[in-house]
Each structure stands twice: as structure tokens, then as C-alpha cells.
Amino acid sequence: MRSTLKFSFFAKGAAFPLCWLGILIFVSLLFPMYCFGRIYIDINAPAIRKFNIAITDFKNLSRNNEHQELVKDMPGVISNDLDCSGYFTPMDKEAFLEDSDPASTLEDIRFKDWSVIGAELLLKGNYTCIGRNVEVEIRLFDVFWGRQILGKRVLGDISSYRHLMHRLSNDVIQTLTGQAGIFLTKLVFVGNASGHKEVYVCDYDGHNVRQKTSDKSIALLPRWSPQGKKIMYNSYKDGGTLLYMQDVSSGVVKQISGRSGLNIGACWSPDGKRVALTLSRKGNPDIFIIDLNGKIIKQVTDHWGIDVSPAFSPDGNKIAFVSNRSGSPQIYLVDLISGTEERLTFEGSYNTSPAWSSLNRIAFVSQDAGHFDIYTMDPNGGRLRRLTEDGGNNEDPCWSPDGRYIMFSSDRKGRYHLYLMNANGLNQRRITFLKGDQTAPSWAP
Amino acid sequence: MGKRMMTGVIVLAFICSSFLLMTSCAKKQIQVSEPVQPATQEMKAEEDKAKAAEEAKSTAEQEAKARAEAERQARLRELKMAQKLADEIRNFEAENIYFAFDRSDLTDESKSVLREKGNWLRANGDYSVNISGNCDERGTAEYNLALGERRAHAAKKFLMGLGISENRLATISYGEEKPVDPGHNDEAWAKNRNDQFTLTK
Predict the structure, then answer these.
(1) Could you give phi then psi for residue B16, rounded to 5 degrees?
(2) Does the N-terminal or the C-terminal CB of chain B have fewer CB atoms within 10 Å?
(3) How many CB pairs under 8 A join A and B?
(4) Mind listing the pLDDT tens digit for each residue in A150-172?
(5) What is the CATH number of the domain that holds A270?
């Protein structure tokens, strides 16, 4: 209460005397967690201490106890979301002192029972099924201060309850970090469960899988547009490595580039109006920029070596790419305005797959001791950091739209599946549990 | 009474005579279809004719047989030729050339394989060849697609150097997408770094 008051004072901003601002900053330094009302978790901190959160089974308030399974299924989705975020440790329900604490109001909850088992946050919820709809209400409590941080009610179709839960998880993240959550984002990837490589999409958590192509050919390198409406991909369905674009909602497919040779590895510009790719129509693979009708706007590289895997910088003015001009594949940078090129990687003899995040880090894949692993670096090659180690091959890194997570493919369990990790390499977890291999993820907003 | 008997006798006589008449008529009809003797002579002539025809036919048949045999032999030769061509095509298509990791330059062994292929292509001018370049699974799909294309181009350039015209040489890269051996070891990888050749007419 006290801190929300401060927050509202602060919001008045302009008419606020400077000395008061100074005092506020001083106070905020003393109590960083509780100042400015809401920022519990500073996700930009180098090391994030995870919050213990207790999430109870939801209470079914439906008249005839319809859809009793949601008692566990709905909090299960939120628990998994918060676990995936890397900011929380959802607590084991076995540890809860009250199996099904009926209390859901501030006055009735015995916060001591929760703090004694180490819970810092408590999330409770209830739902009411009305026909095909369900109304869900959650409340998030700060156990230490014994206060409610968030109360939220949503209404939607029962069959899409996961979507509703992801919305609520986003609200929790927004409340505690001040940043938007990723729980409603989607992935596109290549799967070969049918015996052919086809394009699939799924929710960020691997659920809700849908097949987007049925070409019975080889589909490769699907890339979701920054606005989320189109998917570019390569397919051999017409005989070569041609580039196609599918409209996500209508499913209509259009050929974008069908030049002889390679038309591969499309990377969307941040504004979604252009695409960088590799063309080899004259025999040598170089990087070009084309528009969405396939017309060449600019030739970016012109070198006898192999130039592939372009990745736009967040401002769209630079492109990181892979070239073997030095004898082995290494990552280079080209400035689209000045045309200057520079080499970024010097360690190891096989560095590929650059992916440039919205927070200006470049993830890439490097071969070391026979295995491929994921690294990140600054766009000048500095602050190199290894993210995966001792777990088979780890490839195809792609960033979440907010630049805080990396999805990648790994064969650490035998076949290739999709895995999620934080940008610092922590909290690696498997996302897809499908037949065959899942590779080449691309993240949609 | 006497008069009545008379008419009865007359009627009877009339009936009898009419019967006689009818039977005699019938006899006559049978006699008409009876002459057999001159027909047997005609048949003999016909038989002779048939024999002659048969003889002619058998000679013709023999000739046809001979022709068929000749044709069969010719077909056999043709088949053998076709078989030989099919074998040659199969051998041509079965023989890949192989590459070192992350390399697209031709080894001496690859060059000698390509020289043989070049000779065959020169001798069979109506065939074109489709060269597909392949990589092992290591590395990215994109880099391997480019590397596979390089490998296909390396063979194409060599064959062009042997005088095979460019329009008979098509290339495609499958990168790491079509491994010959699904294994994940050095042996499998060595097999999967190749150029494959398919002929089209």
C-alpha cells in the first residue's frame, strides 16, 4: 500500500520538487524490491535470485463441478510458464501445509503457514464453467508482507484454457518484472515425424502443435516474420531449393524466389519489409536483400567464398553472416550503409548460425571437440559466453522476440528436439516431445 | 345300300390312290438327293489342293519361324545391348565421388572416376547427367547446402573440362538432407559427403 502510494506520487513527475525525487531514489536504493510499487524482479541484473512461488490447485466453483480436471491442469500451465521464465521456483505441492486451503481472500489466508515452508509468493485461483466458457480468477500474494499484488479475472473458451493461463502468466510477469511475458508467443520449426520434413507451428511451450505444410518434400529453414503474419521457408517441392512464403492465417503459399541454384536462409528485416538470403544464381553463394515480391534490392556480399546465414541487426543497418573466405566457416559482419566487412569470430574452426537478438547480442554455434554448442557475444565479438556444454550437439539458436530466451535444437536425448533456455544459458529444458526430429526453430511475437 | 357301298369303295380307292401318289412323290424327292458318286472325285481334287496349300503353308511357316528366330536373335542382341546400357547406367549412377570434411576439392580418385564418367558421356551423347552434392550432418543446414552446391559444381566443372557441354550437366545441392547412411559416426559421415549422379535422356 505504502509503495503504491509512492508510485502514484512519482507518477505526477513534472510538478515534483527535485529534492523529493532525490529522497525517493535514496529510498529506492534501500528497498529496491518494493519501491516504485511493483518491480520485484530486475531481469536485467546479471544474476537473478529465483522466487519461491506456491501455486495451489484451483477451486472449482462451477455449479455441478464440471471440468474437475482443470483444478490441476490450469495451475499446471501457469506453474510451467513461471518455471520456464527462469525467475521462479514453483514449489512442490507436497510441501504445502494446507492441502487445499479454501481461503482466497487476504483476511483469511494464513500467510505464516506459507512463509514457514519458504514460499515468497502465493498464487491462488478459482474457476467457474458456464456452458462452453470458463471464467478464471487468480490472486497473487506477497507472503512476507501479507498483501495482494495482483488480482485478475479472465473469461474464455474452455477448450483454449491454456491460452487463458498463458495470458494470466503474462500478467504475473508484467506485474513482477515490469516487462511483457513471452507466454503467448509461438514457434515455427521443421519436423520429420511423417517421414518428410514439414513445417510445424506450436506454442512457445511446445503445446498446440499444428502442421503447416504437407508437401511430402523437404521443407527447410522456416522463419516467422517479425509481425507474425507470414512464414518464409525453403522447400524442394518444385525441384530446387526455392523460397516460399506462407500466410499464417489463410495458409496461402507463394513462391518468392525461384532463381537457379540456392535461394536459402531467409532472414526478415526488423520492419518485415525485406528479406536477406543466400542466392547462387551465378554459381557462387552470396548474400542479397530482396523485397517480398522476390525482387533483388541489393547485393550485400560479393566474394568467391561461401556466404550464408544472414542475420539482421535490430536496427536493420548491419548483417551478421557466415563465410568460409578464411578457409573455414566464421562469422562476419557487414555494415549495409558503409559496406565495410569485419570478422567477428577467431576461436575454433567452425562458427555458424548467427542470430541477433533485440537486446543486441549475437548467438551462434561453434564446434568444439567434435560437438556443436551455442555461444553468445556482443556485435563486436566481445563478451564471449558459452551457453551449452556436455550435452550432445546444440544448434539452430533463435531468440525470443524480447531477446531474453533462446530456443535451440539439441540431440542430447538421442534425436533432435527443441529446448528453451535463458539468454545466459540457465534453465535449459526440453520443449517438444514429438516423434522424429524437431529442428530449425523460429520465434514469432 | 349297293349305291352307298360303291361310293364308299370309290372314296377308299381315291384315298388309297392319293396315298400312293403321295408316297411315290416322296420317293422321288429322296431320289433327287441321292447322286454321290461324282462328288467323291471333286473332294479328291480339293484334298490335293489342300495338301499343296498345306505344303506351301508349312514352308511359309518355316520361313516365318526363321524370320521370327532371326527377330528373336535380334531382339536378344538388342536386349543384351539394353542390358549392357542399363548396367552401364547403373554403374555410372552407383559410383559416387567423395569429399573430405568441409572440403569441395576433388581427390585424385574422384578425378579418375569423373574421367570414366566423361568417357561414357562422350560415347552416349543423348544422355544428360544430374549431379547432386551432399554433406554429412555436421554443421548448419545453410552452410551445408552451399557446400553441397560447391561439391556438385566441382564435378560439373571437371566434366566440362573434359569437353562435356554445360547444358548436359545439371546440379542440385541437398546439403545434409539426403544421407546415404543414417549413422552418426565417421564411417557414415565419410559416405555422406559425396556427389551423386543420375542420368536422364
Answers:
(1) -60, -45
(2) N
(3) 71
(4) 999 999 999 999 999 999 999 99
(5) 2.120.10.30
Cross-chain Cβ contact B141/A262 below 8 Å: no
- In 3-state terms chain B splits into helix, strand, coil percentages (rounded to 5) of 70, 10, 20
Structural domain contains residue A42: no
Last residue of a domain, one of A177, A200, A219: A177
Q: Is there a single domain that holds both residue A243 and residue A151?
A: no
Q: Per the domain annotation, does A220 fall within a domain?
A: yes
Residue-number span of the structural domain to which A92 is assigned: 47-177
Interface with chain A: mutation pick from B105, B137, B143, highest number of A CBs within 10 Å: B143
Q: What is the CATH number of domain B84-200?
A: 3.30.1330.60
Q: Pick the range with the lowest mean pLDDT from A35-49, A378-392, A412-426, B53-67.
A: A35-49
* Chain A residues inside the 8 Å CB shell of B143: 306, 308-309, 322, 324, 329, 352
Distance from CA of B192 to the nearest CA of A (A): 17
B102, B141, B147 member nearest A440 (Cβ): B141
Supply the ipTM of this predicted assembly: 0.85
Q: Which cell is A213 given?
A: 505444410
What is the band of A438 on the pLDDT scale with cuts at 50, 70, 90? Answer: very high
Residue spans per domain, chain B: 84-200
Between A103 and A367, the more confident residue is: A367
Adjacency order of strands within the sheet including A438-444 = A210-211, A198-203, A186-191, A438-444
Number of domains present in the structure of chain A: 3
Shortest CA distance from B133: residue in chain A: A261
Q: What are the backbone dihedrals phi and psi of residue B174, each rounded to the nearest 5 degrees, phi first? A: -105, 5
If one compares A83 and B9, the residue with the highest pLDDT of the two is: A83
The answer to whether A285 contacts B139, with C-beta atoms less than 8 Å apart, is: no
| Domain CATH for A141 | 3.40.50.10070
